[in-house]
Amino acid sequence: MRSRFRVGFMAILLGMSVVAFARTTAISYHGGPIMLNTPNLYYIWYGNWSNNTAPTILVDFALNLGGSPYYKINSTYYNSAGTHATGNIGYAGETTDNYSHGTSLSDSAVQAIVSAAITSGRLPKDSNGIYMVLTSADVNETSGFCTQYCGWHTYATISGTNIKYAFVGNPDRCPSACEAQTTSPNGNAGADGMASIIAHESEEAVSDPNLNAWYDRTGAENADKCAWTFGTTYTTANGSKANMKLGTRDFLIQQNWENSGSGFCSLTLK
After folding, report:
1. What one-character-per-residue DSSP string does 63-115 give?
2. How far is the C-alpha of 270 from the C-alpha of 267, rounded, in Å?
């Protein structure tokens, strides 16, 4: 099983949300664990990233995401002992994979890519980590990338440890489905689109790592309930839209579901 970030079909430009139905339903706790302390975020750059500014943009994004007013929304989620997520996340490292499974990936191939990065020692084995497989635009995920989803997260036992991981496809492969805008704050629409997917999947991995903690009666997790909604935006120097500054960069990042009262989508912890 996995949780998927569904395609949006230029939702920001058309003023639509593909999960508007989910936002009418409160989120509920189902007894499973959440990720505590400071989860570690790992990148696996799969494919060809030469002459692409995405690595610089997305590492900057990861370094400034944790502890931000936006990410603190995740601190409204708790486990069976009443212990809350911290709202922190830390960037912990990266590795590359030069098409070890070609340009057409299955779900099992994504898991194998994560497993190889860990068992080879290129990345540490970390039960409090989230491993993101980031694919270049020439790579497809055959279970539905660009037609059913833009990214997904799940977990597996790898070398005897519960490992949380995610697939994050490059929206340049299907701009009309997975990019909110074609002119983006950092001059790279694919990378800027991936930043929002990374936020989405990491938020869900923290609040529902084993797919048995926080979701609503439709199965929507916290980030699902706010997918393709961006709240108040501003215009950047190049004419693109953004809704937050992290470090020195502007980003357009989807809202997250704040678990307070009956719940609501927000860009900052209220």
Report:
1. HHHTTSTTGGGGGG-B-TT-PBP-S--EEEEEEEE-STTTTEE-HHHHHHHHH
2. 9
Q: Count other C-beta atoms under 10 Å from residue 238's C-beta.
A: 11
Q: Cα–Cα distance between 28 and 212 in angstroms, integer?
A: 10
Q: Is 71:90 a contact under the CB 8 Å cutoff?
A: no
Backbone φ, ψ for residue 199 (5° rounding): -60, -50
Burial classification of residue 84, based on how many CB atoms lie within 10 Å of its CB (0-12 exposed, 13-18 middle, 19 or more buried): middle
Higher pLDDT, 11 or 241: 241
Kindly report the pTM of this predicted structure: 0.94
Please state the rounded mean pLDDT for residues 74-89: 98
DSSP lists the bridge partners of residue 147 as none
Q: What is the rounded CA–CA span in Å between residue 147 and residue 78?
A: 33
Contact in structure between 263 and 29 (CB atoms under 8 Å):
no
Across residues 183-200, what is the average pLDDT? 98
**Which residues does 81 contact at the CB level (< 8 Å), separation at least 6?**
none
